[in-house]
Write a structure and sequence with these properties.
With 330 residues, the chain is mainly alpha-helical. The protein has 2 domains: 215 residues, Rossmann fold (3-Layer(aba) Sandwich), CATH 3.40.50; 79 residues, Tyrosyl-Transfer RNA Synthetase, CATH 1.10.240.10. The protein contains 14 helices and 5 strands. The strands form 2 sheets. The chain has a 3-stranded parallel beta sheet. A two-stranded parallel ribbon has the order 4-5. Strand 1, helix 1 and strand 2 form a beta-alpha-beta unit. The longest helix has 30 residues. The two termini are 39 Å apart. Its main location: cytoplasm.
Length: 330
Protein backbone atom coordinates (compact mmCIF):
# COMPACT_ATOMS: atom_id res chain seq x y z
CA UNK A 1 0.00 0.00 0.00
CA UNK A 2 1.51 3.33 -1.05
CA UNK A 3 1.24 6.55 0.91
CA UNK A 4 -0.97 9.23 -0.63
CA UNK A 5 1.02 12.34 -1.37
CA UNK A 6 0.06 15.46 0.56
CA UNK A 7 -1.05 18.51 -1.39
CA UNK A 8 1.40 21.41 -1.62
CA UNK A 9 0.42 24.86 -2.87
CA UNK A 10 2.42 28.00 -3.58
CA UNK A 11 2.56 30.92 -5.99
CA UNK A 12 4.35 34.04 -7.20
CA UNK A 13 3.14 37.43 -8.32
CA UNK A 14 3.97 38.27 -11.96
CA UNK A 15 5.40 41.70 -11.21
CA UNK A 16 8.61 41.43 -13.26
CA UNK A 17 11.41 39.19 -14.46
CA UNK A 18 12.67 36.48 -12.12
CA UNK A 19 16.21 36.64 -10.76
CA UNK A 20 18.57 34.46 -8.76
CA UNK A 21 17.01 35.65 -5.50
CA UNK A 22 13.64 34.26 -6.62
CA UNK A 23 15.33 31.02 -7.60
CA UNK A 24 16.98 30.58 -4.20
CA UNK A 25 13.98 31.82 -2.25
CA UNK A 26 11.38 29.58 -3.86
CA UNK A 27 11.83 28.07 -7.29
CA UNK A 28 14.82 25.85 -6.56
CA UNK A 29 12.86 24.38 -3.66
CA UNK A 30 9.70 23.88 -5.73
CA UNK A 31 11.59 21.83 -8.29
CA UNK A 32 12.68 19.45 -5.53
CA UNK A 33 9.29 19.34 -3.82
CA UNK A 34 7.34 18.40 -6.95
CA UNK A 35 8.71 14.88 -6.55
CA UNK A 36 7.45 14.57 -2.97
CA UNK A 37 4.02 16.24 -3.05
CA UNK A 38 0.92 16.71 -5.17
CA UNK A 39 1.85 20.26 -6.19
CA UNK A 40 -0.16 23.28 -7.34
CA UNK A 41 1.83 26.34 -8.43
CA UNK A 42 -0.11 29.51 -9.18
CA UNK A 43 0.89 32.64 -11.09
CA UNK A 44 -1.15 34.95 -8.89
CA UNK A 45 -2.22 37.76 -11.19
CA UNK A 46 -5.05 38.93 -8.92
CA UNK A 47 -2.50 39.40 -6.15
CA UNK A 48 -0.36 41.45 -8.52
CA UNK A 49 -3.26 43.89 -8.89
CA UNK A 50 -3.31 44.62 -5.15
CA UNK A 51 -0.22 46.81 -5.51
CA UNK A 52 0.04 47.30 -9.29
CA UNK A 53 -3.53 47.82 -10.47
CA UNK A 54 -2.40 50.74 -12.64
CA UNK A 55 0.36 48.74 -14.32
CA UNK A 56 -1.54 46.16 -16.33
CA UNK A 57 -0.27 46.73 -19.88
CA UNK A 58 2.42 44.05 -19.60
CA UNK A 59 0.54 41.67 -17.30
CA UNK A 60 -0.22 38.99 -19.90
CA UNK A 61 3.39 39.02 -21.11
CA UNK A 62 4.70 38.79 -17.54
CA UNK A 63 2.47 35.80 -16.87
CA UNK A 64 3.73 34.06 -20.00
CA UNK A 65 7.32 34.95 -19.12
CA UNK A 66 6.94 33.60 -15.58
CA UNK A 67 5.49 30.34 -16.86
CA UNK A 68 8.48 30.01 -19.20
CA UNK A 69 10.91 30.69 -16.34
CA UNK A 70 9.27 28.08 -14.13
CA UNK A 71 9.35 25.44 -16.84
CA UNK A 72 12.92 26.31 -17.83
CA UNK A 73 14.04 26.00 -14.20
CA UNK A 74 12.69 22.47 -13.97
CA UNK A 75 9.01 22.46 -12.99
CA UNK A 76 7.44 19.51 -14.79
CA UNK A 77 3.76 19.82 -15.79
CA UNK A 78 3.53 16.03 -15.63
CA UNK A 79 4.31 16.22 -11.92
CA UNK A 80 2.56 19.43 -10.90
CA UNK A 81 -0.23 21.81 -11.89
CA UNK A 82 0.98 25.20 -13.18
CA UNK A 83 -1.81 27.70 -13.69
CA UNK A 84 -2.91 31.31 -13.83
CA UNK A 85 -4.80 32.29 -10.68
CA UNK A 86 -7.54 34.19 -12.53
CA UNK A 87 -8.39 31.07 -14.54
CA UNK A 88 -9.78 29.58 -11.31
CA UNK A 89 -12.95 31.64 -10.80
CA UNK A 90 -13.83 29.47 -7.79
CA UNK A 91 -11.08 31.31 -5.87
CA UNK A 92 -12.87 34.62 -6.40
CA UNK A 93 -16.23 33.21 -5.32
CA UNK A 94 -14.72 31.61 -2.23
CA UNK A 95 -13.07 34.94 -1.41
CA UNK A 96 -16.47 36.64 -1.64
CA UNK A 97 -18.17 34.06 0.59
CA UNK A 98 -15.35 34.08 3.14
CA UNK A 99 -15.52 37.89 3.28
CA UNK A 100 -18.98 37.50 4.85
CA UNK A 101 -17.67 35.58 7.86
CA UNK A 102 -14.13 36.84 8.54
CA UNK A 103 -13.77 39.66 11.11
CA UNK A 104 -12.13 42.79 9.74
CA UNK A 105 -9.74 42.86 12.71
CA UNK A 106 -8.18 39.57 11.55
CA UNK A 107 -6.97 41.26 8.37
CA UNK A 108 -5.89 44.51 10.04
CA UNK A 109 -3.59 42.65 12.45
CA UNK A 110 -1.57 40.89 9.71
CA UNK A 111 2.01 42.17 10.33
CA UNK A 112 2.81 42.84 6.67
CA UNK A 113 -0.29 45.01 6.14
CA UNK A 114 0.88 48.17 7.89
CA UNK A 115 4.52 47.51 6.96
CA UNK A 116 3.72 47.46 3.26
CA UNK A 117 1.44 50.47 3.50
CA UNK A 118 4.45 52.35 4.85
CA UNK A 119 6.99 50.87 2.44
CA UNK A 120 4.80 51.50 -0.60
CA UNK A 121 3.39 54.84 0.52
CA UNK A 122 4.12 56.35 -2.90
CA UNK A 123 1.43 54.03 -4.31
CA UNK A 124 -2.31 54.35 -3.70
CA UNK A 125 -2.81 50.94 -2.13
CA UNK A 126 -5.02 51.76 0.84
CA UNK A 127 -7.75 49.73 -0.85
CA UNK A 128 -10.20 46.99 0.02
CA UNK A 129 -8.27 44.60 -2.21
CA UNK A 130 -4.96 45.27 -0.49
CA UNK A 131 -6.48 44.84 2.96
CA UNK A 132 -8.10 41.61 1.83
CA UNK A 133 -5.14 40.02 0.05
CA UNK A 134 -4.33 37.66 2.98
CA UNK A 135 -7.91 36.37 2.69
CA UNK A 136 -7.45 35.90 -1.05
CA UNK A 137 -4.20 34.07 -0.32
CA UNK A 138 -6.07 31.81 2.09
CA UNK A 139 -8.56 31.04 -0.67
CA UNK A 140 -5.72 30.09 -3.02
CA UNK A 141 -4.61 27.52 -0.47
CA UNK A 142 -7.91 26.24 0.84
CA UNK A 143 -9.75 25.93 -2.47
CA UNK A 144 -7.32 23.25 -3.64
CA UNK A 145 -7.14 21.65 -0.17
CA UNK A 146 -3.53 22.71 0.36
CA UNK A 147 -1.82 20.97 3.25
CA UNK A 148 1.82 22.02 2.94
CA UNK A 149 2.80 25.60 2.07
CA UNK A 150 6.49 26.41 1.41
CA UNK A 151 7.17 29.94 2.69
CA UNK A 152 9.79 32.16 4.24
CA UNK A 153 9.46 33.16 7.89
CA UNK A 154 7.80 36.48 7.00
CA UNK A 155 4.86 34.59 5.50
CA UNK A 156 4.19 32.32 8.48
CA UNK A 157 1.52 34.70 9.93
CA UNK A 158 -0.36 34.38 6.64
CA UNK A 159 -0.45 30.61 6.96
CA UNK A 160 -1.63 30.91 10.56
CA UNK A 161 -4.42 33.20 9.36
CA UNK A 162 -5.34 30.66 6.68
CA UNK A 163 -5.65 27.99 9.35
CA UNK A 164 -7.89 30.27 11.43
CA UNK A 165 -10.10 31.03 8.44
CA UNK A 166 -10.55 27.36 7.59
CA UNK A 167 -11.26 26.50 11.21
CA UNK A 168 -13.81 29.33 11.54
CA UNK A 169 -15.70 28.10 8.51
CA UNK A 170 -15.64 24.50 9.75
CA UNK A 171 -16.86 25.62 13.19
CA UNK A 172 -19.62 27.94 11.92
CA UNK A 173 -21.08 25.29 9.63
CA UNK A 174 -20.27 22.21 11.69
CA UNK A 175 -18.19 20.75 8.88
CA UNK A 176 -14.76 19.41 8.01
CA UNK A 177 -14.46 20.97 4.57
CA UNK A 178 -11.00 22.47 5.06
CA UNK A 179 -7.78 20.97 6.35
CA UNK A 180 -5.19 22.73 8.50
CA UNK A 181 -2.33 23.75 6.18
CA UNK A 182 1.14 23.88 7.68
CA UNK A 183 4.02 26.17 6.76
CA UNK A 184 7.10 24.45 5.36
CA UNK A 185 9.93 26.90 5.96
CA UNK A 186 12.25 27.46 3.03
CA UNK A 187 15.96 27.44 3.83
CA UNK A 188 17.05 31.05 4.19
CA UNK A 189 19.85 31.73 1.71
CA UNK A 190 20.53 35.46 1.90
CA UNK A 191 21.57 36.80 -1.49
CA UNK A 192 22.54 40.48 -1.55
CA UNK A 193 22.27 42.70 -4.58
CA UNK A 194 25.28 43.08 -6.85
CA UNK A 195 26.07 46.39 -5.13
CA UNK A 196 25.76 44.89 -1.63
CA UNK A 197 22.46 46.68 -1.05
CA UNK A 198 19.24 44.73 -0.64
CA UNK A 199 18.37 43.04 -3.93
CA UNK A 200 15.64 45.07 -5.58
CA UNK A 201 14.15 45.36 -9.04
CA UNK A 202 14.11 49.13 -8.61
CA UNK A 203 17.89 49.09 -8.06
CA UNK A 204 18.48 46.74 -11.02
CA UNK A 205 21.12 45.05 -8.86
CA UNK A 206 20.36 41.42 -9.70
CA UNK A 207 21.12 38.71 -12.24
CA UNK A 208 18.15 37.42 -14.23
CA UNK A 209 17.35 33.75 -13.85
CA UNK A 210 17.51 33.37 -17.63
CA UNK A 211 20.46 35.68 -18.33
CA UNK A 212 22.71 34.91 -21.31
CA UNK A 213 26.40 34.06 -20.66
CA UNK A 214 27.41 37.55 -21.85
CA UNK A 215 24.89 39.18 -19.52
CA UNK A 216 26.13 37.09 -16.60
CA UNK A 217 29.72 38.20 -17.21
CA UNK A 218 28.65 41.82 -17.54
CA UNK A 219 26.67 41.70 -14.29
CA UNK A 220 29.44 39.95 -12.35
CA UNK A 221 32.01 42.47 -13.53
CA UNK A 222 29.85 45.24 -12.04
CA UNK A 223 29.73 43.62 -8.59
CA UNK A 224 31.03 45.61 -5.63
CA UNK A 225 34.16 44.28 -3.93
CA UNK A 226 36.17 45.34 -0.86
CA UNK A 227 36.45 49.16 -1.21
CA UNK A 228 39.68 49.14 0.82
CA UNK A 229 41.44 46.89 -1.67
CA UNK A 230 43.18 49.15 -4.18
CA UNK A 231 45.84 46.96 -5.82
CA UNK A 232 45.63 43.36 -6.98
CA UNK A 233 48.08 42.12 -4.33
CA UNK A 234 46.50 44.05 -1.44
CA UNK A 235 45.01 41.75 1.23
CA UNK A 236 41.23 41.82 0.96
CA UNK A 237 38.26 41.30 3.27
CA UNK A 238 35.89 38.83 1.59
CA UNK A 239 33.20 39.37 4.22
CA UNK A 240 32.42 42.85 2.81
CA UNK A 241 32.50 41.68 -0.81
CA UNK A 242 29.33 40.87 -2.74
CA UNK A 243 31.31 38.52 -5.02
CA UNK A 244 32.30 36.34 -2.07
CA UNK A 245 28.68 36.28 -0.83
CA UNK A 246 27.76 34.68 -4.17
CA UNK A 247 30.73 32.29 -4.03
CA UNK A 248 29.45 30.97 -0.68
CA UNK A 249 26.12 30.06 -2.26
CA UNK A 250 26.93 29.14 -5.85
CA UNK A 251 30.57 27.97 -5.57
CA UNK A 252 30.70 26.13 -2.27
CA UNK A 253 33.57 23.85 -3.37
CA UNK A 254 35.91 26.77 -3.95
CA UNK A 255 34.54 29.44 -1.62
CA UNK A 256 37.03 28.86 1.20
CA UNK A 257 39.93 28.70 -1.24
CA UNK A 258 38.84 31.99 -2.80
CA UNK A 259 38.51 33.64 0.61
CA UNK A 260 41.98 32.51 1.68
CA UNK A 261 43.55 33.77 -1.55
CA UNK A 262 41.72 37.10 -1.21
CA UNK A 263 42.99 37.62 2.33
CA UNK A 264 46.51 36.79 1.19
CA UNK A 265 46.33 39.06 -1.83
CA UNK A 266 47.15 36.20 -4.21
CA UNK A 267 44.00 36.49 -6.31
CA UNK A 268 42.77 39.64 -7.98
CA UNK A 269 39.15 40.79 -8.01
CA UNK A 270 38.78 40.27 -11.75
CA UNK A 271 40.06 36.69 -11.53
CA UNK A 272 37.71 36.05 -8.61
CA UNK A 273 34.80 37.44 -10.65
CA UNK A 274 35.73 35.32 -13.64
CA UNK A 275 35.56 32.15 -11.51
CA UNK A 276 32.15 33.18 -10.19
CA UNK A 277 30.82 34.03 -13.66
CA UNK A 278 31.85 30.57 -14.91
CA UNK A 279 30.00 28.91 -12.01
CA UNK A 280 26.88 30.98 -12.53
CA UNK A 281 26.92 30.24 -16.24
CA UNK A 282 26.96 26.49 -15.49
CA UNK A 283 23.80 26.98 -13.43
CA UNK A 284 21.97 29.48 -15.63
CA UNK A 285 22.89 28.53 -19.21
CA UNK A 286 20.68 25.38 -19.32
CA UNK A 287 17.79 27.47 -17.97
CA UNK A 288 18.52 30.22 -20.50
CA UNK A 289 18.59 27.77 -23.41
CA UNK A 290 15.37 26.05 -22.30
CA UNK A 291 13.70 29.45 -21.95
CA UNK A 292 14.54 30.28 -25.57
CA UNK A 293 12.88 27.03 -26.70
CA UNK A 294 9.76 27.80 -24.68
CA UNK A 295 9.45 31.38 -25.90
CA UNK A 296 9.57 30.01 -29.44
CA UNK A 297 6.71 27.62 -28.63
CA UNK A 298 4.01 29.73 -26.93
CA UNK A 299 1.23 27.25 -27.73
CA UNK A 300 2.93 24.64 -25.55
CA UNK A 301 3.21 27.08 -22.64
CA UNK A 302 -0.46 28.03 -22.99
CA UNK A 303 -1.41 24.36 -23.03
CA UNK A 304 0.55 23.84 -19.81
CA UNK A 305 -1.37 26.67 -18.13
CA UNK A 306 -4.71 25.43 -19.45
CA UNK A 307 -4.03 21.86 -18.33
CA UNK A 308 -2.92 23.08 -14.90
CA UNK A 309 -6.07 25.18 -14.57
CA UNK A 310 -8.25 22.22 -15.55
CA UNK A 311 -6.64 20.02 -12.89
CA UNK A 312 -6.95 22.75 -10.25
CA UNK A 313 -10.54 23.62 -11.12
CA UNK A 314 -11.62 20.01 -10.65
CA UNK A 315 -10.58 20.20 -6.99
CA UNK A 316 -11.60 23.83 -6.49
CA UNK A 317 -15.13 23.14 -7.72
CA UNK A 318 -15.54 20.28 -5.24
CA UNK A 319 -14.46 22.57 -2.38
CA UNK A 320 -16.71 25.40 -3.51
CA UNK A 321 -19.78 23.19 -3.97
CA UNK A 322 -19.48 22.10 -0.32
CA UNK A 323 -19.18 25.73 0.77
CA UNK A 324 -22.17 26.81 -1.32
CA UNK A 325 -24.31 24.02 0.11
CA UNK A 326 -23.37 24.77 3.70
CA UNK A 327 -23.89 28.54 3.27
CA UNK A 328 -27.20 28.07 1.44
CA UNK A 329 -26.21 29.72 -1.82
CA UNK A 330 -26.20 28.51 -5.43
Amino acid sequence: MTDVKKTLMSGMRPTGELHLGNYLGALENWVKLQNEYNCFFSIVDWHALTTAYKEVEQLDMRIFDMACDWLAAGLDPKQCAIFRQSDIKEIAELHLLFSMIIPLSWLERVPTYKDQLQQLKEKEINTYGFLGYPLLQACDILVCQGEVIPVGEDQVPHIELTREIGRRFNHLYNSEVFKDPIAKLTENKVLPGLDNRKMSKSYQNYIRLTASPDEIMQKVRSMVTDPERIRKDDPGNPEVCSVYAYHKIFNTDQAQEVATACKAGTIGCMQCKKILAEKLTLLIQPIYEKKQELVANPDYVKDVLNDGAKKTRAIALQSLEKVRELMGVR
